[in-house]
Amino acid sequence: MSVVYDCAQSPDREDGLAAAASAVRAGRLVVIPTDTVYGIGADAFSASAVRALLAAKNRGPDMPVGVLVGSWQTIDGLVLSVPRPARLLVEAFWPGDVSIVLPHAPSLSWDLGHTDGTVMLRMPLHPVAIELLREVGPMAVSSANVSGRPPASTAQDAREQLGESVSVYLDGGPSGDPVPSTIVDLSGDEPVILREGAVSTAAIAEALGEEVRTR
Protein backbone atom coordinates (compact mmCIF):
# COMPACT_ATOMS: atom_id res chain seq x y z
CA MET A 1 0.00 0.00 0.00
CA SER A 2 1.42 3.40 -0.96
CA VAL A 3 1.96 6.11 1.68
CA VAL A 4 1.90 9.91 1.32
CA TYR A 5 4.18 12.04 3.50
CA ASP A 6 3.65 15.77 3.95
CA CYS A 7 7.15 17.22 3.61
CA ALA A 8 6.02 20.62 4.88
CA GLN A 9 5.80 19.08 8.37
CA SER A 10 9.13 18.33 10.08
CA PRO A 11 8.42 14.85 11.52
CA ASP A 12 6.59 13.77 8.36
CA ARG A 13 9.41 15.05 6.15
CA GLU A 14 12.06 13.07 8.03
CA ASP A 15 9.91 9.93 8.06
CA GLY A 16 9.05 10.39 4.40
CA LEU A 17 12.64 10.79 3.29
CA ALA A 18 13.62 7.70 5.27
CA ALA A 19 10.74 5.70 3.76
CA ALA A 20 11.55 6.92 0.25
CA ALA A 21 15.23 6.03 0.64
CA SER A 22 14.30 2.56 1.86
CA ALA A 23 11.89 2.09 -1.06
CA VAL A 24 14.48 3.18 -3.64
CA ARG A 25 17.10 0.83 -2.20
CA ALA A 26 14.54 -2.01 -2.36
CA GLY A 27 13.88 -1.36 -6.05
CA ARG A 28 10.49 0.26 -5.57
CA LEU A 29 9.11 3.50 -7.01
CA VAL A 30 8.72 6.87 -5.32
CA VAL A 31 7.20 10.20 -6.33
CA ILE A 32 9.16 13.33 -5.44
CA PRO A 33 8.68 17.07 -5.88
CA THR A 34 11.10 18.84 -8.21
CA ASP A 35 11.53 22.42 -9.35
CA THR A 36 9.47 21.75 -12.50
CA VAL A 37 6.78 19.10 -11.99
CA TYR A 38 6.52 16.05 -9.74
CA GLY A 39 8.71 13.13 -10.77
CA ILE A 40 8.43 9.36 -10.49
CA GLY A 41 11.79 7.92 -9.55
CA ALA A 42 13.73 4.72 -9.04
CA ASP A 43 17.27 3.50 -8.46
CA ALA A 44 19.08 4.38 -11.70
CA PHE A 45 21.19 1.22 -11.45
CA SER A 46 18.26 -1.21 -11.06
CA ALA A 47 17.06 -2.36 -14.48
CA SER A 48 13.96 -3.95 -12.95
CA ALA A 49 13.07 -0.73 -11.11
CA VAL A 50 13.45 1.33 -14.28
CA ARG A 51 11.25 -1.16 -16.16
CA ALA A 52 8.65 -0.80 -13.40
CA LEU A 53 8.86 2.99 -13.76
CA LEU A 54 8.23 2.77 -17.50
CA ALA A 55 5.37 0.33 -16.93
CA ALA A 56 3.75 2.66 -14.38
CA LYS A 57 3.82 5.43 -16.98
CA ASN A 58 2.64 3.08 -19.74
CA ARG A 59 5.73 4.03 -21.70
CA GLY A 60 8.29 2.02 -23.64
CA PRO A 61 12.10 2.04 -23.68
CA ASP A 62 12.03 4.11 -26.89
CA MET A 63 11.55 7.13 -24.58
CA PRO A 64 14.51 6.72 -22.18
CA VAL A 65 14.54 8.00 -18.62
CA GLY A 66 16.82 10.82 -17.46
CA VAL A 67 18.91 10.74 -14.30
CA LEU A 68 18.79 13.25 -11.44
CA VAL A 69 21.87 13.83 -9.28
CA GLY A 70 22.32 15.52 -5.92
CA SER A 71 25.61 17.32 -6.56
CA TRP A 72 27.85 18.62 -9.32
CA GLN A 73 30.56 16.08 -8.53
CA THR A 74 28.29 13.07 -9.06
CA ILE A 75 28.41 13.37 -12.83
CA ASP A 76 32.15 12.62 -12.97
CA GLY A 77 31.50 8.97 -12.19
CA LEU A 78 28.58 8.63 -14.60
CA VAL A 79 29.95 9.87 -17.92
CA LEU A 80 32.85 9.09 -20.23
CA SER A 81 34.24 12.59 -19.69
CA VAL A 82 32.98 16.02 -18.67
CA PRO A 83 33.90 18.44 -21.46
CA ARG A 84 34.33 22.16 -20.86
CA PRO A 85 30.84 23.05 -22.25
CA ALA A 86 29.28 20.70 -19.70
CA ARG A 87 31.22 22.31 -16.86
CA LEU A 88 30.10 25.76 -18.02
CA LEU A 89 26.43 24.72 -18.06
CA VAL A 90 26.68 23.03 -14.67
CA GLU A 91 28.28 26.12 -13.13
CA ALA A 92 25.73 28.45 -14.74
CA PHE A 93 22.49 26.52 -14.25
CA TRP A 94 22.79 23.73 -11.64
CA PRO A 95 20.83 23.15 -9.57
CA GLY A 96 18.14 24.18 -12.01
CA ASP A 97 16.33 23.71 -15.28
CA VAL A 98 19.02 22.51 -17.69
CA SER A 99 19.44 18.83 -18.60
CA ILE A 100 22.72 17.77 -20.20
CA VAL A 101 23.16 14.76 -22.51
CA LEU A 102 26.61 13.13 -22.51
CA PRO A 103 28.06 9.70 -23.39
CA HIS A 104 27.76 7.59 -20.26
CA ALA A 105 30.66 5.71 -18.70
CA PRO A 106 30.90 2.31 -20.45
CA SER A 107 31.52 0.58 -17.12
CA LEU A 108 28.03 1.40 -15.82
CA SER A 109 25.52 -1.45 -15.84
CA TRP A 110 22.25 0.37 -16.20
CA ASP A 111 19.33 0.21 -18.60
CA LEU A 112 17.50 3.50 -18.94
CA GLY A 113 15.94 2.69 -22.31
CA HIS A 114 17.19 3.23 -25.84
CA THR A 115 19.82 5.88 -25.09
CA ASP A 116 22.44 5.10 -27.78
CA GLY A 117 25.15 5.12 -25.14
CA THR A 118 24.22 8.48 -23.63
CA VAL A 119 22.61 9.67 -20.43
CA MET A 120 20.59 12.82 -19.69
CA LEU A 121 21.60 14.39 -16.36
CA ARG A 122 20.15 17.17 -14.23
CA MET A 123 20.45 18.49 -10.67
CA PRO A 124 17.02 19.73 -9.54
CA LEU A 125 16.50 22.88 -7.49
CA HIS A 126 14.31 21.41 -4.77
CA PRO A 127 15.47 20.67 -1.21
CA VAL A 128 13.43 17.47 -0.80
CA ALA A 129 14.68 16.02 -4.08
CA ILE A 130 18.29 16.97 -3.36
CA GLU A 131 18.18 15.51 0.14
CA LEU A 132 16.87 12.18 -1.17
CA LEU A 133 19.40 12.10 -4.02
CA ARG A 134 22.27 12.73 -1.64
CA GLU A 135 21.04 9.85 0.50
CA VAL A 136 20.49 7.23 -2.23
CA GLY A 137 22.61 8.42 -5.17
CA PRO A 138 21.56 8.96 -8.79
CA MET A 139 17.91 8.24 -9.56
CA ALA A 140 16.14 7.55 -12.83
CA VAL A 141 13.32 10.10 -12.84
CA SER A 142 10.54 10.97 -15.26
CA SER A 143 7.50 13.20 -14.94
CA ALA A 144 4.92 11.68 -12.58
CA ASN A 145 2.12 10.97 -15.01
CA VAL A 146 0.72 8.28 -17.25
CA SER A 147 2.01 8.80 -20.78
CA GLY A 148 -0.32 11.08 -22.73
CA ARG A 149 -1.75 12.76 -19.64
CA PRO A 150 -0.62 16.08 -18.10
CA PRO A 151 2.41 15.94 -15.76
CA ALA A 152 1.45 16.07 -12.08
CA SER A 153 1.84 19.43 -10.36
CA THR A 154 0.88 18.04 -6.93
CA ALA A 155 1.41 14.78 -5.08
CA GLN A 156 -2.34 14.16 -5.26
CA ASP A 157 -2.30 14.58 -9.05
CA ALA A 158 0.48 12.01 -9.21
CA ARG A 159 -1.32 9.56 -6.93
CA GLU A 160 -4.54 9.79 -8.96
CA GLN A 161 -2.60 8.77 -12.06
CA LEU A 162 -0.03 6.31 -10.69
CA GLY A 163 -1.86 4.84 -7.68
CA GLU A 164 -0.39 1.79 -5.99
CA SER A 165 2.41 1.37 -8.52
CA VAL A 166 4.31 3.87 -6.36
CA SER A 167 5.33 2.96 -2.80
CA VAL A 168 6.02 6.42 -1.36
CA TYR A 169 4.71 9.85 -2.31
CA LEU A 170 6.61 12.85 -0.95
CA ASP A 171 4.27 15.83 -0.90
CA GLY A 172 6.21 19.07 -1.26
CA GLY A 173 3.23 21.24 -2.07
CA PRO A 174 2.27 22.51 -5.54
CA SER A 175 5.14 22.52 -8.04
CA GLY A 176 6.33 25.60 -9.84
CA ASP A 177 5.35 26.48 -13.38
CA PRO A 178 4.96 23.22 -15.36
CA VAL A 179 7.73 24.18 -17.79
CA PRO A 180 10.17 21.36 -18.64
CA SER A 181 13.91 21.69 -18.45
CA THR A 182 15.94 22.74 -21.46
CA ILE A 183 17.83 19.75 -22.89
CA VAL A 184 21.32 20.36 -24.29
CA ASP A 185 23.00 17.50 -26.16
CA LEU A 186 26.78 17.58 -25.71
CA SER A 187 27.40 14.05 -26.98
CA GLY A 188 28.52 15.23 -30.43
CA ASP A 189 31.02 17.68 -31.85
CA GLU A 190 28.94 20.75 -31.05
CA PRO A 191 26.15 21.64 -28.60
CA VAL A 192 22.61 21.04 -29.80
CA ILE A 193 19.44 22.05 -27.98
CA LEU A 194 17.03 19.14 -28.19
CA ARG A 195 14.27 20.97 -26.31
CA GLU A 196 14.00 24.60 -25.28
CA GLY A 197 12.29 24.79 -21.92
CA ALA A 198 12.69 26.95 -18.84
CA VAL A 199 16.11 28.25 -19.94
CA SER A 200 16.25 30.07 -23.28
CA THR A 201 18.53 29.23 -26.18
CA ALA A 202 20.06 32.70 -25.80
CA ALA A 203 20.96 32.01 -22.15
CA ILE A 204 22.57 28.69 -23.10
CA ALA A 205 24.59 30.38 -25.85
CA GLU A 206 25.71 33.11 -23.46
CA ALA A 207 26.89 30.58 -20.88
CA LEU A 208 28.81 28.61 -23.52
CA GLY A 209 30.17 31.67 -25.28
CA GLU A 210 29.14 30.33 -28.68
CA GLU A 211 26.17 30.01 -30.96
CA VAL A 212 24.00 26.96 -30.31
CA ARG A 213 21.81 25.27 -32.86
CA THR A 214 18.48 23.65 -32.15
CA ARG A 215 17.28 20.35 -33.49
From TrEMBL:
Pfam families: Sua5_yciO_yrdC (PF01300). GO terms for biological process: regulation of translational fidelity; tRNA processing. Residues 14-199 form the YrdC-like domain. One of its GO terms (cellular component) is cytoplasm. It comes from Actinophytocola oryzae. It catalyses: L-threonine + hydrogencarbonate + ATP = L-threonylcarbamoyladenylate + diphosphate + H2O. Keywords: ATP-binding, Cytoplasm, Nucleotide-binding, Nucleotidyltransferase, Transferase, tRNA processing. It is found in: Cytoplasm. SUPFAM superfamilies: YrdC/RibB. This is L-threonylcarbamoyladenylate synthase. Its EC number is 2.7.7.87. PANTHER family: SUA5, THREONYLCARBAMOYL-AMP SYNTHASE. Belongs to the SUA5 family.
